[in-house]
Design brief:
globular; Rossmann fold; 4-stranded parallel beta sheet; lipid metabolism; alpha/beta; 10% strand; oxidoreductase
Length: 424
């Protein structure tokens, strides 16, 4: 949503934005688009501007994205920029599903991009966690996997049950990665390296993404209630009071508008400069050890202080999150499970809350989120920002006011405060 709004705001000369949409929860693609464009961030756009966004029925895993011949012909003639911003973002999915949704879909988008009459830029939205198996500073370059992306796609499609059974007993199948999500993103980057050599391609790697920072609606996060945003929601409501990790470690994160800006800037950069025959351009969107190194303990403190300043309508307990490790964390979760037992029978008998808000579910959600986000994030020692800094410095002063993604400009207390207002 944020990317579509950013594209509409970028240039009045933009003629069409084709969004590949499939039916979901009984809503037709056009209905989903209408609901999307009714969001607050599109209120300042006139109806004729929003009409530039066109929903096309498709399926990203299918050949030609499952598009009709008429739409496919129209896209090939008129589209010059392809932005692949979709994919599976859940960490606990099977390897088959992760490869299908994050690698196969990338292959389909590449195939479409190559068929365009006038390709100016192909941009892939990856993640800073894509190389969590790399020790030391992660550079803005592609780290090659041992297995080829096409080999993994073939395994996922032809032997789905075998590949999922093996990954449970063979950690080498995901090459030392923390989970299937990170590995699938690394594979997707390798696929772009193989398939887009000599073509205008770029990869954006954001870290943990929070709300808009410099925007008419600061803190806007849409309907995001999952992942680390869901974890913050639990903490703000007092249902979760424990964070795992090294208090002194850097908390790699960024505002949503920085991600949008990076995609737009990189699209212009690769579209106006001769493409590299070696590899696509890559930028990290994040802070790091040297630039605005906010610590985990600082983020937890900001979270607690802003939660008190912006109270929720209801609480499980008063919000007071702490960093706990080892036995302290284990005892905390044991106590939370024991406490959840007291609510188990009443929640089953009386409709106190929906299933996804019941005590056991909240405790388990917090425990899993602690593993998925804090432990995985702790694997990253540092991120190189050389390319990111280069691109932001090369912006025209007027463009820099609107499209900068320089992490040194971010006040993380302000970012957390505005994000909380939307999360709760």
């Amino acid at each position: 949503m944020g990317l579509i709004e950013g594209l509409l705001s970028a240039s009045p000369d933009l003629q069409r934005i084709y969004v590949v949409v499939r039916e979901k929860k009984g809503l037709a693609p056009q209905e989903r688009l209408v609901r999307l464009l009714s969001s607050e961030i599109f209120n300042h756009h006139a109806a004729d501007v929003k009409a530039k966004v066109v929903a096309v029925v498709g399926e990203l895993t299918a050949e030609n994205l499952g598009l009709s011949e008429e739409i496919l012909r129209e896209i090939r003639e008129n589209v010059s920029v392809v932005i692949h911003n979709a994919g599976l973002i859940k960490f606990n999915r099977s390897l088959r599903e992760a490869v299908t949704m994050n690698v196969l879909t990338t292959l389909r988008c590449i195939e479409l991009a190559k068929s365009l009459r006038n390709l100016s830029a192909f941009i892939f939205s990856s993640t800073a966690l894509a190389n969590s198996n790399i020790s030391g500073r992660i550079k803005e370059e592609i780290y090659k996997t041992k297995r080829s992306p096409r080999e993994m796609i073939k395994l996922a499609l032809e032997t789905p049950s075998t590949i999922d059974k093996e990954v449970k007993i063979r950690s080498d199948l995901i090459e030392g990665q923390q989970n299937t999500y990170c590995y699938s993103k690394q594979l997707a980057e390798n696929l772009i390296l193989e398939e887009m050599a000599g073509l205008p391609a770029g990869i954006v790697r954001p870290s943990l993404v929070y709300g808009f920072y410099k925007h008419e609606i600061p803190g806007w996060m849409g309907s995001s209630q999952s992942g680390h945003c869901g974890l913050i929601r639990i903490m703000v409501k007092g249902a979760g009071r424990s964070m795992y990790g090294d208090p002194k470690s850097v908390y790699f994160s960024c505002p949503c508008d920085h991600v949008v800006n990076a995609i737009l800037v990189l699209a212009v950069a690769v579209g106006t400069h001769p493409p590299s025959a070696k590899a696509p351009e890559i930028v990290h969107v994040s802070n790091n050890v040297e630039v605005n190194p906010v610590r985990t303990k600082d983020m937890v403190r900001y979270l607690n202080e802003e939660a008190w300043k912006n109270p929720c309508d209801s609480y499980a307990f008063l919000p007071r999150c702490k960093i706990r490790n080892g036995l302290r964390a284990d005892f905390y979760f044991l106590a939370m499970y024991v406490m959840a037992l007291f609510f188990f029978i009443p929640e089953r008998i009386f409709p106190i809350s929906p299933p996804w808000m019941r005590s056991f579910h909240l405790v388990e959600l917090q425990r899993k989120a602690r593993i998925y986000f804090t432990e995985i994030s702790s694997c990253i020692t540092d991120l190189s920002l050389e390319n990111a800094i280069k691109y932001t410095k090369n912006l025209h002063p007027e463009d820099a006011q609107k499209y900068s993604f320089d992490p040194s400009d971010v006040d993380y207390r302000k970012l957390i405060a505005s994000s909380i207002s939307w999360i709760i």
